[in-house]
């Protein structure tokens, strides 16, 4: 079967209109689509599909879908900045927690020894990933220094800076429970919740950094928020963006950071409130109160 025939930007606008989308300015719409992939744009129009799955419901406008796209884009920017601060903190806690337990005696390279991990296959995955990152950053002065002086080995606090958030999560999950407990305790969590939250944040980070859609998206894995919290707040669904944001808040390195994120998120939602539905990002009606509660 042949793939779909490519369309010019003007033809893409025509196609949207053929399916029932109202376009006030064909020129402005074509200009927007020249900067935003048609496939990406129509992902924000899924909620407006008619029962036949092809056409759009009456009253669906290009401008309304565009506003959803801009909301998502702004939201990703806010979360990206927050995730960067949390990721930096997690690298420090994980590296230091493991180093103090397993790298305190010469040659201080316990993070390379599979004996120090309960899941050696996951540990090997991390080392393989590290090797790829070293090659990718071959021109880095840091990488060159450690290759020249230490025979291609580096302290764990250098190693974690080359790992992705996903690989950092894998490194933690590969550790023995004693190291996991100590690291999780430093963040006020149990190791089970810590592992879940860092996994959730790695998924959220990947979405934010690669421009993936947050709006109208189910999040996996589900977020462990605690039985007591969910009983008190049954309006919070654990497979939503809002639940992932709660996990992010609970890793905030400072009180000021949480308050800043809360203000920015609430302002963003209010800015686009007329164009979006809270349910499509998993935000309950009392979202502002719940976010402010996390700041206390």
Q: What number of structural domains do the residues give?
A: 2
Backbone shape: globular
Enumerate how many helices there are, as a single number.
14
Annotation, overall tally of beta strands = 0
Largest sheet descriptor: none
H/E element sequence: HHHHHHHHHHHHHH
Poorly predicted regions: none
Instruction: Please state roughly what percent of the residues sit in beta strands, choosing from under 5%, 5-15%, 15-25%, 25-35%, 35-45% or over 45%.
Output: under 5%
Query: Would you tell me the overall average pLDDT?
Result: 93
Distance between the termini: 58 Å
Whole-number radius of gyration? 23 Å
How much helix is in the residues? Answer: 55-70%
Structural class: mainly alpha
Can you lay out the helices and strands and say which pair or pack?
Blueprint: H1 9-18, H2 26-33, H3 38-42, H4 62-102, H5 120-136, H6 141-150, H7 156-162, H8 165-174, H9 177-186, H10 191-209, H11 227-232, H12 241-249, H13 255-271, H14 287-294
Characterization of this structure:
The chain has 296 residues and is mainly α. Helix content is 60%, strand content 0%. The protein folds into two domains: 9-60, no CATH class; 70-294, no CATH class. The protein is globular. The model has no long low-confidence stretch (mean pLDDT 93).
